[in-house]
Design a protein that fits this description.
This protein has 490 residues and is mainly alpha-helical. It has 21 helices and 2 strands. This is Gluconate transporter.
Length: 490
């Protein structure tokens, strides 16, 4: 929503602006797939079409003044917001991946993981790893960190890299929108009035719902994504031939260190700030305080944690720290990261313009005076609002935050304030319904879509069929699971 809000006349233009947004999404797909226009330019062009078109619609409708008062500011804000939040994370993660790739560390990791889980189960290995990692870590960061492991497993096992890419991305996605202390679900729980005592139960039910959601993504990866190809696939060498070019491989500890240490630090940062109660004045009491909280918060910031991973990669994996490794190798990592950053930034610009339109207010107006949907039916209302917002503006976290804010005052009238003893089951299931909606769907205006597609070598067409449809399936499976639980408790 625009910071200053919108008048009722502008909100009534919501259906036309939604239609314009749909046109812009179709334009991006067509321009990229048919005209071969680079995704960065396609998205930026669509962003301007949406911004100018929205203001033109306002003029034709007699709205006084432009709907989007500062188009340049909205575009810069959206672009800068994404680059600020994930730019250095992508750079550091890409450098780590480049070092892991060039030193044979990723090959060593593949051997260790397959030794534990077996050569026959690389896809389930990626699903499980992603599911665990994304509980404390943003899915974007987790995918960047684990990208090299995914490629090595594909080489080691001979499994289609697109299969492993989707298994990893959907495993990460399942807990990203459902299980605190990931920021999205914890913010939604707080917005819906769940206090610190109830967050434990949100985690429990989030884990329960996320398991079938992750399995749905895994099944999609195995059955559907396996039909597609990637530019990352290398079928000319066996794994053993590929491994020989690295000579002596690093130890397992050295190989996993640049990945595991940042993940551990990110987890510490999340849990250090986990609320465990309130004081007499109503202020939150966190799990840690004082110097320990300051230290863990600093180390757990994604950019700090990944920079430590870069240092570990440089000092434990590189056989020589000379110009070849410290300049040329780093330069290769920066070049790889630059393309991804530009595309994700363009997606952020599109999201910034969408947030400057009355779409969120329009969706709220559709159901604000309708109390016919109660109980389980109301869970589908929350799901649909979050799905519309997610699909329209790209950010799962934003969809979680906005939808939970919209739903909070309507919980009693929709029968979503039910309690199971002292457990706020109605509010918890609402968080889960919103989280499932915030999965539907990941496409061109979502930074995660571009991270997955670009780090996996997928064309736009393949990414839509493999990644976007997988997130749709995950969201639908999730809301069905939530509705079944709601039948028994609401």
């Amino acid at each position: 929503m625009s910071p200053e809000g919108f008048s009722q006349d502008i909100i009534q233009l919501g259906p036309i602006i939604l239609a314009l947004l749909l046109f812009c999404i179709i334009f991006i797909v067509y321009a990229t797939a048919k005209w071969k226009l680079h995704p960065f330019l396609s998205i930026i062009a669509a962003t301007y079409i949406l911004a100018l078109g929205t203001n033109f619609i306002g003029i034709l409708s007699g709205v006084e003044g432009p709907i989007i008062k500062d188009i340049g500011g909205a575009i810069n804000g959206g672009f800068g917001g994404i680059v600020t939040s994930i730019g250095l994370v992508i750079i550091f993660g890409t450098i780590i991946g480049k070092v892991l790739e060039k030193t044979g560390a990723a090959v060593k990791m593949a051997e260790v993981v397959l030794r534990l889980l077996g050569d026959r189960h690389p896809a389930i290995a990626m699903t499980i790893i992603g599911w665990i990692v994304s509980i404390p870590v943003f899915c974007d960061s987790g995918y960047v960190i684990l990208s090299s492991l995914k490629k090595s497993l594909a080489k080691r096992s001979g499994v289609n890299v697109v299969t492993l890419s989707i298994a990893l991305s959907t495993g990460l996605y399942a807990t990203h929108t459902l299980v605190p202390p990931t920021p999205g679900p914890i913010a939604a729980a707080t917005n819906l009035g769940i206090g610190p005592d109830g967050l434990f139960w949100v985690i429990v039910i989030g884990i329960i719902v996320s398991i079938p959601v992750a399995l749905a993504g895994h099944v999609w990866a195995r059955i559907v994504a396996s039909k597609y190809t990637s530019t990352l696939e290398e079928a000319t060498q066996t794994f053993e031939e590929y491994k020989q070019q690295f000579g002596k491989l690093p130890s397992a500890w050295a190989a996993f260190g640049p990945i595991l240490v940042p993940i551990i630090l990110l987890a510490l940062g999340s849990f250090a700030n986990f609320p465990v109660g309130t004081d007499a004045e109503g202020n939150r009491i966190l799990l840690t305080s004082g110097f320990v909280n300051t230290l863990f918060t600093f180390l757990g910031a994604p950019v700090n944690a990944l920079f430590i991973g870069v240092l570990l990669a440089l000092f434990t994996l590189l056989p020589k720290r000379d110009e070849e490794n410290l300049t040329k190798l780093m330069g290769q990592g920066l070049l790889d990261a630059a393309i991804i950053i530009m595309i994700t930034g363009a997606g952020g610009a599109l999201g910034g313009v969408i947030r400057a339109t009355p779409i969120a207010d329009y969706v709220k107006s559709l159901i604000s005076d309708n109390a016919a949907f109660v109980g389980v039916g109301a869970l589908f209302v929350a799901f649909l609002i979050a799905a519309l917002l997610k699909t329209a503006q790209g950010s799962s976290t934003t969809a979680l935050v906005i939808t939970s804010t919209i739903m909070m005052p309507m919980l009693p009238s929709l029968g979503l304030d039910a309690m199971a003893g002292t457990v706020p089951i109605g509010q918890m299931l609402t968080v889960m319904a919103i989280g499932c909606g915030a999965m539907v769907v990941s496409h061109v205006n979502d930074s995660y879509f571009w991270v997955v597609s670009q780090f996996s070598g997928m064309s736009l067409k393949t990414a839509y069929r493999a990644q976007t449809m997988a997130t749709l399936v995950q969201g639908l499976v999730g809301i069905i699971v939530v509705a079944i639980i709601g039948v028994f408790f609401l």
